[in-house]
Amino acid sequence: MLIRVNTASRRPIDGPMAAVAGPRALCSEFKYRRGSEIFGEGEHAEYIYQISYGAVRTYKLLADGRRQINSFHLPGDMFGFENSETHRFTAEAIVETHVRIMKRCNLLEAMPSEAAGSKKLIGFVTENLQHAENHMLLLGRKTSLEKVAAFLLEMDGRLAHPDVMTLPMSRRDIADYLGLTLETVSRALSILRDDKILRFHGTTQREVEMLDREKLAKLDA
Amino acid sequence: MLIRVNTASRRPIDGPMAAVAGPRALCSEFKYRRGSEIFGEGEHAEYIYQISYGAVRTYKLLADGRRQINSFHLPGDMFGFENSETHRFTAEAIVETHVRIMKRCNLLEAMPSEAAGSKKLIGFVTENLQHAENHMLLLGRKTSLEKVAAFLLEMDGRLAHPDVMTLPMSRRDIADYLGLTLETVSRALSILRDDKILRFHGTTQREVEMLDREKLAKLDA
DNA sequence: CGAAGTGTTGATTAAGATCAACATGCGTGG
DNA sequence: CCACGCATGTTGATCTTAATCAACACTTCG
């Protein structure tokens, strides 16, 4: 399912990826279609990724198919860093997604020579850890309504508080992120809609307008 | 509640702490009594810690007191690394605990000069992240029995499979680690005992003998 | 057009939480 | 040393939240 857009698109990188890898590293652009796998749990970790367009979910599965989504990645986000040789989870494009890819070994070579890059890398991993710590609190101790409120606030913040945010993920994805069923997510959203805390636009129920962020913040524990 | 054992006990460190901090760093030994706080969420992060004796829980609280324990730390484990200036969670001694303490700033100074130390540090944070990822799967998607089975297997592994393991933490601690109530933890343990998968020794119900690790592994999803 | 995917809502069930009672261990102070 | 109070742990009864089962509407896409 991997489509190389433009093999000749190798060029010096910029942005956060440059900060960790140094200015000399090169990268390529790739496209993934909606639902396609970027890498699988247990696969050899070859690249690191930065999203330029689209959205990605990373998740783990139990043997019987139960799924826990660790995190959603949006444009600008990087993922796929691994300490070991293999990926610890699966990454999939939620919608049509464009990513920049850099060889992991290039990163490793570039790193020790650049103390600043090394610090950036630690900062990046720490950021993920911090998110995971907050998410453990959510998963272990929040109610369904609190979870959904927290999710909306997280997305609102990461999308820079647009008037109407367009969620790339389905109700099932949200449920698997929050440790709920899709029905429970749907019911919680209906409650928030009935309470005039949010409003849906369009026909797909994925375009959400936040009417009362304060009330929402109070619903999140 | 902090008791300095021996102020004059500064000496060169060894072990994992030396690996990240370099051989020149110094550290002190401290004791904390059962239940006392080592550092609090939001406090300025001054030190990093390595346990030489005892056990520590790190947790986050919601405003109404609901608690989520991120992790248990046992002898040899290090904790208290922070990227930011403040601690993201609280750390408490579960039982009488002895720790080695090193100034965080010493670590930071020692780091850039030592590429190997920097890599060790990344490895350490990654290890924590990996644990958090596995724990999110547990919290979000496992049943109570699966959670308790996974907990026992984790502790068994970390205590190097002793004949009888002595759990330092209470049922409530276990519950707050697994996102359950203490009653549910107690019931799950009773089921495992009735199924001859484990046996309790002594009077406190904290000394656990693993009778059938394979069966236990099958109960963990 | 039909089929599959997505989302909402209602009815019912089940897992785990809550409420409660009781047993035992342990530390403290008389 | 014992008595008391508190912490800890188990078990039972009941309740609540979210899961499950189900029906239906709408969209999208081949």
TrEMBL record, chains A, B:
Protein name: CRP/FNR family nitrogen fixation transcriptional regulator
Cellular component GO terms, alphabetical: cytosol
Domain Cyclic nucleotide-binding: 32-80
A Pfam family hit: cNMP_binding
Keyword Transcription: yes
Gene3D superfamilies found in the cross-reference section: Jelly Rolls (2.60.120.10), Winged helix-like DNA-binding domain superfamily/Winged helix DNA-binding domain (1.10.10.10)
Keywords (A to Z) from UniProt: DNA-binding, Nitrogen fixation, Transcription, Transcription regulation
Species this protein is from: Bradyrhizobium stylosanthis
CDD domains: CAP_ED (cd00038), HTH_CRP (cd00092)
Domain HTH crp-type: 142-214
PANTHER family per the UniProt record, alphabetical: CRP FAMILY TRANSCRIPTIONAL REGULATORY PROTEIN (PTHR24567), FUMARATE AND NITRATE REDUCTION REGULATORY PROTEIN (PTHR24567:SF75)
Superkingdom, taxonomy of origin: Bacteria
GO molecular function, one term: DNA-binding transcription factor activity
